[in-house]
Amino acid sequence: MKIYLDNNATTPVDPRVVMEMERALKGEFGNPASVAHAWGWQAEELVKIAREKVAKAIGAKTNDIIFTSGATEAINLAILGLRKEKTRRIIHSSIEHKAVIDVCEEMRRSGFEVRIVPVNHLGLIDLDKLRRELNSPTLLVSIIAANNEIGTIQDIKAISKLCKERGALLHLDITQLLGKVKFNLEELGVDLASFSSHKIYGPKGVGALYASTQARDKLQPIIFGGGHERGLRSGTLNVPGIVGFGTAAGILSEELSKIENHVGRLTELMDRELRRQIPEIKLNGDPKNRILGNLNLRIPGINAGQLLAKLGTTIALSSSSACLSQTGGASHVLKAIGLTRQERDESFRIGIGRFNTVEEIGFAAEKIALTAKTI
Ligand code: PLP
Question: What is the predicted pLDDT for the residue at 208?
């Protein structure tokens, strides 16, 4: 049995998504920017339907959606896109995704002040420190709504309220939150939000930036050309990708509570089984405020790298985030929540998804426990 348990890195594409993408690829190949003929109109209609589905899934208006190549590009647009603003101060948390950290570094190099707010041992942002940081005029606060490594979900309402009180824009990285819980960005008062199709059972290479009217007025493009996406993201639209993204988002709107139940049950089962078989196992992050499916764990005395290497051909797990595993870097997130070097080396991430089964979880828990005993 081969079991994929790395759904925080990426998710398998839903067969219904594949079907819709195939139709778009085969039949409706037109360019949505071709305004003079039916091929273009058809493609434009597909993009319109997808945009509505994506907007609905996050509680936004269709006008607020700017399609991009993924969350990384959306994050670049959200932050670099504000480079012409007069207030040159940005705040982000110590557990952001590398995309936010690196873009903010670029802003720092071009003269912005960048402040980093710490998190506690659960990965929750220190709201008092954020409040104090916001005493100085600030352009933007960028926060990872749900962390990709430890799954901690932030108190978005409280953060949004603080930003509103101090007149700062709020950018949320909702890449990991979307598809795990229901939320409404408009109600939460969020100005900008970045997300990606491949984390919600859609294709890779497509994502979006949500930008409220107020935020859009301030944004400058980072990619120039034909003026697509109302001048904010030039380049012929990836119609099959957008169709797939829209289908995946539509499925979420219809089936989220069913998905929550299933993934929630599997996560509890995995947690229970691992604890029964490895009583010394520890959970990293917040046991309460965390996304379903994510278990960041450590077994004292067991090197996670060795464990993962032994399991790699049958069970897909991750040492931290997929991006960090690629660059071989140590996790800044686990460091930020206070784990020692040894504890970080013992940590691994399980990402359960909606296509996993009870049988797979039982098998994987046993295999992880047995393998750990051989190290
Ligand atoms: N932000 C978070 C929290 C993520 O987990 C990821 C994906 O790893 C990204 C951003 C980047 O997304 P993409 O792969 O679409 O560029």
Answer: 99
Are 229 and 63 a contacting pair, CB within 8 Å? Answer: no
Does 323 qualify as catalytic in the annotation? Answer: yes
pLDDT tens per residue, range 5-26? 999 999 999 999 999 999 999 9
224-233: Cβ within 8 A, 24+ apart:
226/33, 228/33, 229/66, 229/67, 230/66, 232/66, 232/77, 232/81, 233/66, 233/67, 233/68, 233/73, 233/77, 233/209
d(C-alpha 309, C-alpha 313), whole Å: 8
Phi and psi angles of residue 193, each rounded to the nearest 5 degrees, phi first: -150, 135
For 207-218, the pLDDT digits (tens) are: 999 999 999 999
Task: Kindly report the protein residue whose alpha carbon is nearest to atom 10 of ligand 1.
Answer: 71
Mean pLDDT value across residues 223-240: 97
Distance 7 CA to ligand 1 centre (A): 12
Tell me how far the alpha carbon of residue 142 is from its chain's centroid: 13
pTM > 0.90: yes
Give the three-class secondary structure for 141: strand
Cβ of 333 less than 6 Å from ligand 1: no
196 Cα to the center of ligand 1, angstroms: 7
DSSP state of 248: H
**Helix (H), strand (E) at residue 108:** helix 98-109
